[in-house]
Amino acid sequence: MRRTQSSQILKDLEKKMVFLTGPRQVGKTWLSRKIGEKFENTTYLNYDNFDDRTIIESSSWYDKTDLLILDELHKMKGWKNHIKGVFDTRPPNMRILVTGSARLDTFRRSGDSLSGRYFLHRLMPFSVAELKDTPMDGELDLLVERGGFPEPLLAQSPVDAQRWRNQYKESLIRSDILDFGRIGEIRNIELVFELLRRKTGSLLSYNSIAKDLKISSPTAKTYVDILEALFIVFRVTPHSRNISRSILKSPKVYFFDTGLVVGDDGARFENTVAVSLLKAALAKTDETGNLHSLHYLRTKEGKEVDFCMCEENDPYVLYEVKVSDHKVSPALRYFNKKYSVPSSQIVWRLRRRKTVDGIDVVDAGSFLKDLYR
């Protein structure tokens, strides 16, 4: 299946380096190799491979390489200065693609030695929009059940998908958290992870987590920060004109892998939509340079809309998510009137599309198929 970011990455490679980040096992290596097929002389090197490591450290790759792919480069000491030197002294015909997951994304934001030298692309799980015109076109139910990571989504049976997920959870908790240097805290982070699996889409209380685990509230927040930095969960904050106030208010937490959600159809479906909207927001940010972000809306009286898409913190579309309810949410009506922006109620099991007072009630499969990305 073709990743729709491919064409933009190819364009960006003609101008700067490209950093490709995203969750573990989301398909970064596969995509980088597919992009490599577009070039006559592609060199793929993985820093985890001993022989490749020697080549990377000595910059002794084939001198006619026109695409250099460096995987797991962030594991090299002083990697940013190294790649800066490689980029600044490269031959005119050589493009550079650097791939990695959590550590690459964390390290690239520290310091400015690479400023102006790269474009960022964040690869997310498959969405309904990305499955369009493939053999899996219209497989919303399967996406809700298994999530959008390639291996479980394409597995021949639910058993194979679950076996993959069991191994995936183990590698996330044990390998990645150890990589972040939290050896003595793995058990508590595992417990936070399990609590969050059962609170998908609910308002997150760090005090509640702290009480359950008998830890401090700041420590609970730190553990959630780690899970977010590892591309396991992402937070959706309430929209506020005052950004600092928004940060202080309770977020909601969703998983990049919908298959990790423990809950009913509604929780898994809402998570699926959240991942798809986040994917669209990140893609727009990476391609346009304008900050697109995903939020929710809530008043002090408890009126709430699931999702609000913003550009540079200005709302431009509102979404309410329902499994089967076709009646327009009163809260969606309220916020639609307040913000005067396009609004839709996305329904998984909808018999007939309609528009009520300017609010579209749409079938989830059709909506997600036509969503950006």
The secondary-structure element order is HEHEHEHEHEHHHHHHHEHEHEEEHEEEH
Q: Report the count of strand segments.
A: 13
Query: Could you tell me the strand content as a percent range?
Result: 15-25%
Question: What is the global morphology?
Answer: globular
The major β-sheet equals: 8 strands, mixed
**What structural category do the secondary elements indicate?**
alpha/beta
Mean pLDDT: 91
Overview of the molecule:
The protein is of the alpha/beta class and 373 residues long. The protein has 2 domains: 6-122, P-loop containing nucleotide triphosphate hydrolases (Rossmann fold, 3-Layer(aba) Sandwich), CATH 3.40.50; 128-370, no CATH class. Helices cover 43% and strands 19% of the residues. The protein has 16 helices and 13 strands. Helix 10 packs across helix 12 (217-229) and helix 11 (206-213) packs across helix 12. 40% of the residues are buried.
Which descriptors apply to this entry?
373 residues, alpha/beta, Rossmann fold, 2 domains, 16 helices, 13 strands, globular
Detail the topology: elements first, then pairings.
Layout (H helix, E strand, L loop, with lengths): L5 H8 L3 E5 L6 H9 L5 E5 L3 H9 L8 E5 L7 H11 L5 E5 L2 H7 L9 E5 L5 H4 L8 H7 L3 H5 L3 H22 L6 H12 L8 H8 L3 H13 L3 E6 L4 H6 L3 E4 L9 H24 L3 E7 L5 E8 L2 E9 L7 H10 L3 E5 L6 E3 L2 E5 H7 L3
Helix pairs in contact: 10-12, 11-12
